[in-house]
Amino acid sequence: MAIDRLTTSNNEHLDISINNGDMNALREAVRKLGFADEERMLRYLLAVITKSATRSITITDQNGAKISLNPSADLLATPPIQQ
């Protein structure tokens, strides 16, 4: 899996490359959830996370079970950024 920050990124924009398993997962989620394209789904995901008061998000899985999701430690800044 790979999501890489490109060297063209700066304070005004973030350029990323999504490939391999991450691209496959992104396309599958777009298809399965009926989004028009990857950009629109990423916009929705950003809006959801922005509205969250914590890093924990509860979802309903394919079997109808409620599951709480939290980022793994390697995804977080040390110490967490407080705003």
Can you tell me about this structure?
The chain is α+β, with helices and mostly antiparallel strands and 83 residues long. The protein has a domain at 22-68. Helices cover 34% and strands 19% of the residues. The protein is built from two helices and four strands, in the order E-E-H-H-E-E. The chain has helices at residues 20-33, 38-51; strands at 2-5, 16-19, 57-60, 66-69. The strands form two sheets. A two-stranded antiparallel sheet has the order 1-2. A two-stranded antiparallel ribbon has the order 3-4. A hairpin with a 5-residue loop joins strand 3 (57-60) and strand 4 (66-69). The longest helix has 14 residues, at 20-33. The chain starts with a strand and ends in a 14-residue tail after the last strand. The mean pLDDT is 92.
Please render the helix and strand layout as text.
Elements: E1 2-5, E2 16-19, H1 20-33, H2 38-51, E3 57-60, E4 66-69
Antiparallel strand pairs: 1-2, 3-4
Question: What are the defining features of this structure?
Answer:
single chain; globular; alpha+beta; 83 residues; 34% helix; two-stranded antiparallel sheet
Query: Which percent band covers the strand fraction?
Result: 15-25%
Instruction: Give the uncertain stretches in residue-range form.
Output: none
- Biggest beta sheet summary: 2 strands, antiparallel
- The count of helical stretches stands at 2
Question: Multimeric state of these chains?
Answer: single chain
Radius of gyration: 15 Å
* Outline type: globular
Tell me the number of strands.
Answer: 4
Helix content: 25-40%
What is the N-to-C order of secondary-structure elements (H for helix, E for strand)?
EEHHEE
**Content-based structural category:** alpha+beta
The overall pLDDT, averaged over residues, is 92
Strand order of the biggest β-sheet? 1-2
End-to-end Cα distance? 30 Å
